[in-house]
Amino acid sequence: MTQLPPVALSVGADYESVASRFRPIFDRIAAGAVERDQLRTLPYDQIAQLKQAGFGALRVPVSQGGAGVSVKQLFRLLIELGAADSNLPQALRGHFAFVEDVVNAPASAERDQWFARFVRGDLFGNAWTEVGNVALGSVNTQVAKQGDRWVLNGEKYYSTGSIFADWIDVYAQRAEDGSDVIVAVATKQPGVTLSDDWDGFGQRTTGSGTTVFKDAVVEPGHIVDFARRFKYQTAFYQLFHLATLAGIARAAELDAAAQVRARKRIYSHGNAPHVSQDVQIQQVVGEIAAWAYAAEAIALRAAEPAQRAYEARFADDVEAEKHFNIEAEIESAKGQIVATELALRASTHLFDALGASAIGGGKALDRHWRNARAVSSHNPIVYKAKLVGDWSINQKEPIYVWQIGAGPGAEPAPT
């Protein structure tokens, strides 16, 4: 790894200066969140606003035209965005993962070209997972040489954010030798078909549907061996879930407080002439606020090792880099175990501060629980707890790349 001068790395910026650029957009996003959830309207305009404001270039170094924020600062901003609409951090998850891979790459003309695209506003989507009868560890999507060009063929699901994107980060295999690769595919071509067929009850507008590649043209330089991928990638992906959960908890707090302030009706057996002065209701909202605070604190703490791993990589400190890669995995797993419970608890408890009118569909307060449940279902918490326990007991190094697929089947029951 070639060492780069500090100015060429993304080690942090003035947070308030950066955040102030986006908060007016966050406010506009929040204003339409309920309607988008109710109508299942994809946030094309909202993502376009973020794109135009340079949100996608947050991790690009200042020397390359980006904001140069640290990993922790990125996720702090994503928590703010998640409080406005938790669908958007998840929709941008694939983009920032690809950016992070480029940020970790050695200096080169290809890397600088990607930086220029990010600064210009280009966004990435994600297409890694295949459903159906795909064996664990296998992938059917393949890139192959066809005449004088490379083409990609296959079908992916959970293609989060791809429907909004200019490019898609695709996990595939080379047809010639079966080696695992990452392929950057331009979306605006006949060989790419994007469908909004995600039918989950939560996170409805993340654009997480099916993507079909049929002889989609790929530039040779946009096919990269998977082994080169940045090592803390799994932790980085999981930090998005943490930030989204923290954003949901904060949104639950904001909605609970606003609904209590506006409420006119009281119960005969309550404690005050106005519900905002009822000490029991104040306690409920206070507990939600504390859980939201804890979820955010956990998410930001869990983001720190990833930044250290990134910096160690460019310091040519192999031992430190490995240490922080492990720490990033363990801390992101620990964080999700707890933040999941906090977000689900906050999004349920808010109804204890309100009356039956709070369950009206027009308020869509149930979306916080639905969204938290959807986010926390992507990667089972039980396996995270196992990973953390194995590390605590046995110092077993975590698996850095997770896969899902059809298993060989259970043994038949004894007769």
Write structural notes for this entry:
This protein has 415 residues and is of the alpha+beta class. The protein is 47% helix and 11% strand. It has 3 domains: 7-122, Orthogonal Bundle (Butyryl-Coa Dehydrogenase, subunit A, domain 1); 142-228, Butyryl-CoA Dehydrogenase, subunit A, domain 2, CATH 2.40.110; 233-394, Butyryl-CoA Dehydrogenase, subunit A, domain 3. Strands 1, 2, 3, 4, 5, 6, 7 and 8 form an 8-stranded mixed β-sheet that branches. The termini are far apart.
List the helices and strands in order: HHHHHHHEEEEEEEEHHHHH
Oligomer: single chain
How much helix, percentage-wise, in residues? 40-55%
- What fraction of the residues are assigned to beta strands by DSSP? 5-15%
- CATH topological fold name of the largest domain: Butyryl-CoA Dehydrogenase, subunit A, domain 3
Which architecture of the largest domain does the CATH hierarchy give at level 2?
Answer: Up-down Bundle
Protein topology:
Blueprint: H1 15-31, H2 33-39, H3 44-52, H4 71-84, H5 87-91, H6 93-103, H7 109-120, E1 124-127, E2 142-146, E3 149-156, E4 167-174, E5 180-186, E6 192-194, E7 211-218, E8 223-225, H8 233-262, H9 279-314, H10 318-349, H11 366-375, H12 381-394
Parallel strand pairs: 1-4, 2-4
Antiparallel strand pairs: 2-3, 3-7, 4-5, 5-8, 6-7
Protein traits:
11% strand; Butyryl-CoA Dehydrogenase, subunit A, domain 3; single chain; eight-stranded mixed sheet; 12 helices; 415 residues; alpha+beta; Butyryl-CoA Dehydrogenase, subunit A, domain 2
